[in-house]
Here is the input.
Amino acid sequence: MPKKMINIGTPKMVELYQSCIGRKIRRLQKRLAKKAIRNKNHRFENLYNLMYDPKWVEASLKLVLKNKGSNTAGSDGITREHLKDEKTKEAFIRSIVYEMKNNVYEPEPARRVYIKKEKGGKRPLGIPTIKDRVVQQTLKLIIEPIFESDFYDCSIGFRPNRNCHDALPRIYNKIQPSKKFYWVMEGDIKGCFDNISHRILLKIIKKRIKDKRLLSLIKKILNAGYIEDGKINKPGFGLPKVGTPQGGIISPLFANIYLHQFDVWLNSNYGSDLKPSQKIKRRRQKGGGNAILIRYADDFVILWNGNKDNLKLMKDQVKLFLKQELELDLTEEKTLITHVDKGFEFLGFQIRRWNKKTLTSISRRKVERFKRKIQQTTNLISIEESVPHKIMAINSIVIGFAEYYKYTNWKARGMPQRLDWYIQNRIYQWLKRKYQKMSSKQILSKYCHRQRKYKLDGKTIDRKNIGFKIEATYVTDEEIIWLEKLSDRQSKRYLPKKKLNPFITYRYEIEEKYEIEEKWEGRSDSTYNREEYWSGKKLALKRDKYKCRNCGAKVTVGVDEHCHHIDGNSSNHNLDNLVTLCTTCHYLTYGEENVINL
Here is the structure.
């Protein structure tokens, strides 16, 4: 029986962490999140002891090593390759536990590198050591459930179970003619990560965290500094006490905690999403306007249903608040006020209203960036690379581009066809340079084949396409690695989803979760695809009060709940034959090879 986990609507954060984090850690995170929701003014104590809990440190190490960035070394030169051996990992964990328990941990300065910006210039990036990343990940596991419970839905950047596409339905619904949000303020905070005040950030964190040792650790991380050209630079030693370590695991969370104050201020003074509604109506009756904020880290847009003059006044108030309260500045050249009919750019999407309809397309900058990537991949310097690897490299770029922009009207005006032609032309020029002794006809006969029996939206496609033919052997059949085409990708509409706290599994989600997975192809029989099984499992969970019938432990839907057939007959879905078990008890019942999350 195959070991396969069914995805029944669990949050993305749980899907990512469930292979690394144990059930006890998830339970404690859930308790922290629930307490933060129940009491908005509660200050948490006794959290530092989790920093030297071996299970928490081990889970953090797994998450760090699972990331591809662990192949890049910090200032100490240690990478994932140095921690392959289990004994080395255990010694590494013991060293972190010892340093944290005895308060002798001191973070190392991050290794500073520079990456190119899209519009020119360079952005500084700090690469912490593996040990510092593990400590930051452990800290994030502890405090993220607390602050995630306070964040507003208008913030979509660097948060679990959220992505850039969540901005689309929010903007799409509000700029309809009936909503009257005609004006947009595009905002960008100048050097946000580099100018976050340590004093203000610690003051904000102290509203929720009372543990002095944990606050001291946060202060150490902020003051770790960076090393550049062999010189160590630390805040307070010739540098102002501002900035979070860009490239650090904890930095995006610190930025969201810091900018949450901006979300609270804007929504309380101009917001139309929060109650009371009478206040919103009175503001409109007086000739003012209401605002809707959508923020992705330091980039944001504000939708406005008042006139342009009032929006200019609000822009001045935003600048004043950021300067006085958060000591941040807006980037003047990027902070624009535009009408929705003229369109605006946000997160790579070009959004505008035309003929009372909202159109979402790809910004020209992103199209040119895509072309540059294809050009760099097919440059003449790389002719020594093999053809199949080159095709697969281009396919990864094409698929990533199409997946990100599949929720736009990007097929308008034949853009996919034009980009497909550009890609094919670049590959053809690359092949001509690689095989200079071959004629164009010979190159086309070798790498241009007829792609038959290719199904697209229920239709069979018969066309010529670039591909690399792998000859048949006595083990494998003939195979062709085809070039992906953007014109084959279908555009969709991103449907809004209710965003729940990812650290809490709500019981009323169950009805929706079982409707998501209609079929599981990983099982040889069709017993578990039947509607009566899912309805029986739902009733069994409610009857057993979401607890294991064997040990009494609570189970989390979509994570560790199992439905066991008492008589062993997998086709008997009567409620009397179904019982709820946790992972451990299910293992004891069937054995390890049969533990499958149903």
Remarks:
- The first strand starts at residue 110 and ends at 116.
- The chain is about 40% helix and 15% strand.
- The first helix runs from residue 12 to 17.
- Residues 1-14, 473-477, 506-529, 591-598 have pLDDT under 50 and may be disordered.
